[in-house]
Amino acid sequence: xxxxxxxxxxGADAASSNNGLIRRFLDTPPDNTSKTVTVAVALxxxxxxxxxxxxxxxxxxxxxxxxxxKQVNIVQVAGRYEPGMDVAEAFADFEPHVLExxxxxxxxxxxxxxxxxxxxxxxLTLSAPLEDDPASIGRQANYVTIYLLRNDDGSLDKVxxxxxxxxxxxxxxxxxxxxxxxxxxxxxxxxxxAETPGLGAEVDNPRWKALWRDKKLRTEDGExxxxxxxxxxxxxxxxxxxxxxxxxxxxTSRGVDALVRFWMSERGFEPFLERVKAGEI
Length: 281
Fold this sequence. Notes:
Elements: H1 3-27, H2 33-77, H3 87-91, E1 94-100, E2 105-106, H4 117-122, E3 127-129, E4 139-141, E5 143-150, E6 156-166, E7 171-179, E8 185-192, H5 206-210, E9 229-231, E10 242-244, H6 250-263, H7 270-277
Parallel strand pairs: 9-10
Antiparallel strand pairs: 1-2, 1-5, 3-4, 5-6, 6-7, 7-8
């Protein structure tokens, strides 16, 4: 018998053996423990492969949707959103800049269209741990992306600042729009959180968001004290610095108060807003 015939016979024997194993497996009673475990493991492997493939294939779509949702929120908080509008076209009017928080100045070290604020907050070389951490964010990035909206004549209309901090159940991520005077709030809007529906989630209620319009961050008596407050009663400085706390959501309200005061303080955007007040932006 030739070598070729031997190889053919060996292959046939192997195939026959494999078919025999499969046949014996299929003929095994359904309640056999080994068969049950084998089928369960096989199903888990197939399901995990399908889920992984779906996750990989859908990731670009998810990223595009997340980017679009972010743009929608920026346009909305600035008062430029209209139902049915081309959001991408409206968003093109906003200038992104990477801001160095400590100095309140823009940096060219990073591409403002590519810079990832969340990744920077976790990067040990681009962030610092917080010992005094009222917003409960753990680490604070040294750089963040802010957005400028200008009038047709090039003058500043609004600045859009990212803010985030912990509420009751989750970290709330949002944007605050500040008027060109660097002190008057135009709006506050959160685009991601997991607060309790009907209670803390009322941060999304248009009526509550409307309470922020025209409130002041700092006193205008020459002291420039940070006075904006989310509480049940107005602060001594007056109602222009006061936003009524959410009913039945004390801890979420405290979280919003803490995160807003943190990000508007000297550790946040105060150095930048001082430049806005001075007309340097």
